[in-house]
Write a structure and sequence with these properties.
This protein is 43% helix and 13% strand. It has 15 helices and twelve strands.
């Protein structure tokens, strides 16, 4: 009875939270000072005395949600975080209550089975051979492999650990040879250089790939870059391609890059954290033409697949690459046993792992592939419309024509002005935008994740920026 009562309180609070956001009755963002928020939430007293239930829970959620950033608000246009499908949130509740750490099959058979199916769905979307079901007649031969993990940064780290294992088989026991390098465009996600640091390669091992003026990999010069590195004594562990780039959402030419990497026998890793979901859309799948030539792909479901945080897929064309990424010894986990399913634990940094596949499955199964494709098509079309509105507005400049749901723009003025405008937008709370550097300049950045955001919301944002951009009168002398 207590569970039912408290769930009812929480659901009512969440519905009010969502309704207020959708109807713009609350700001999209309100940054309450932490000291005030800690006091208002009564954190110390509740941790010491307990009692978070019933009316106390209702009051707590009122304060908590009042200070929460409202991704459901149509003015939310800031970051690459999904406005989750409600069914994905239901899955998160089921996962939290059952609490099956399913990296070991016996600890969560249903969750592991669903993750296996979700990974295979992604492998097939890329164009790779899916994993055969354990116990099936089809078990021999090379096939794809994968695992879901908590975020793209951890996924990129895992993939690069696998690439290191192929380039330097003894690195796990003897450490890295001093000549390993990565080749990546300067605009790659920061998790690539972070992974290089964690793996002991160092930032110096990340070599800037040749790119065009917009930061996309330049196939014409990539082969020369790899060849010159090899001639200089370096061993190229992997080439990293963006699909799409974090800052402006542009896709690298994957087919041309993939063919070069294939001919040079170099591991191609595609960071498709944000943009791989376009594989679901017939209209936008051509942006990823050639992705099947990669050796590994990262794909975040908590972006364009409308899955609650966090859920990122690590996917490889040859399952053996991922199965050899880690070498471990734990007698309480790794031993001979009856195995009616599949253990994911040897493919991931994590030992205890949430039922991430359940959240993807619920979000996908609610409306099917057609629903996800329609969402991707809508948000991309909205970005193109927004770019057109901004481009024709006096005093505005658009960085590039969008290929995804990301739009970078700026107003006439220096970089400090762009950051100042963003700060004032956030303080006003009607519209929440982010910013990024591109081509040596600071841009305001829209990431159109919310299915409730309409064209008129873009127009209202432009009007608000115009009002904020009016020069202040000079101080009287």
């Amino acid at each position: 009875m207590a569970l039912r009562t408290n769930c009812a309180i929480a659901l009512k609070a969440l519905k009010t939270f969502s309704d207020q956001a959708l109807k713009r009755r609350s700001p999209v963002i309100r940054q309450t000072p932490m000291a005030d928020l800690e006091k208002g939430l009564n954190l110390k007293r509740l941790m010491a005395e307990g009692g978070l239930r019933g009316e106390t829970l209702r009051a707590f959620l009122g304060t908590y949600l009042d200070a929460a950033t409202r991704l459901h608000h149509p003015g939310y246009m800031a970051h690459q975080v999904a406005v989750p499908h409600p069914m994905g949130a239901v899955a998160a509740l089921v996962d939290a209550f059952t609490n099956n750490p399913m990296a070991i099959y016996e600890m969560g058979p249903s969750a592991a089975t669903i993750e296996y199916a979700v990974v295979n769905w992604m492998l097939e979307k890329i164009g790779w051979q899916p994993m055969p079901l354990p116990g099936s007649a089809v078990t021999a031969g090379i096939h794809g492999g994968g695992v879901l993990t908590h975020g793209g940064s951890l996924a990129n780290l895992t993939v690069l650990a696998a690439a290191r294992g192929r380039a330097a088989a003894n690195a796990w026991h003897q450490g890295n040879p001093g000549n390993l390098v990565l080749v990546a465009p300067r605009g790659c996600h920061y998790s690539i250089t972070r992974a290089a640091g964690i793996l002991g390669l160092g930032r110096k091992a990340v070599i800037d790939a040749p790119t065009d003026a917009d930061g996309r990999l330049d196939p014409a010069r990539l082969a020369q870059c790899v060849t010159e590195l090899r001639q200089g004594g370096s061993k190229v562990m992997a080439v990293v391609a963006n699909a799409c780039s974090t800052a402006v959402g542009l896709y690298d030419p994957l087919r041309e890059v993939g063919e070069i990497c294939r001919d040079l026998d170099v591991w191609l890793h595609v960071d498709g954290a944000h943009g791989a979901s376009a594989l679901v859309s017939d209209r936008h799948r051509p942006l990823l033409d050639g992705i099947e030539l990669a050796r590994s792909v990262v794909w975040d479901a908590h972006k364009m697949l409308r899955t609650p945080n966090l859920c990122a897929a690590i996917l490889v064309r040859d399952h053996r690459d991922l199965d050899g990424a880690f070498q471990e010894d734990a007698s309480y986990l790794f031993h001979e046993k009856d195995q009616p399913g599949f253990d994911f634990i040897h493919r991931t940094v994590e030992c205890t792992k949430a039922a991430l596949g359940l959240k993807v499955f619920f979000a996908l199964a609610a409306d099917g592939e057609a629903g996800i494709a329609a969402f991707i098509d809508r948000q991309t079309a909205l970005a193109k419309t927004a770019a057109g509105m901004l481009r024709t507005a006096p005093g505005f400049e658009v960085a590039v024509e969008p290929q995804s749901n990301i739009v970078c723009f700026r107003v006439d003025g220096d970089d400090d002005l762009q950051l100042g405008l963003r700060r004032r937008l956030v303080e006003a709370g009607k519209h929440y935008v982010s910013s990024a550097e591109f081509q040596g300049r600071r841009w305001l950045r829209l990431v159109l994740m919310n299915p409730a955001t309409e064209v008129h919301d873009i127009g209202e944002l432009i009007d608000e920026i115009r009002q904020l951009h009016v020069p202040c009168p000079p101080d009287p002398v």
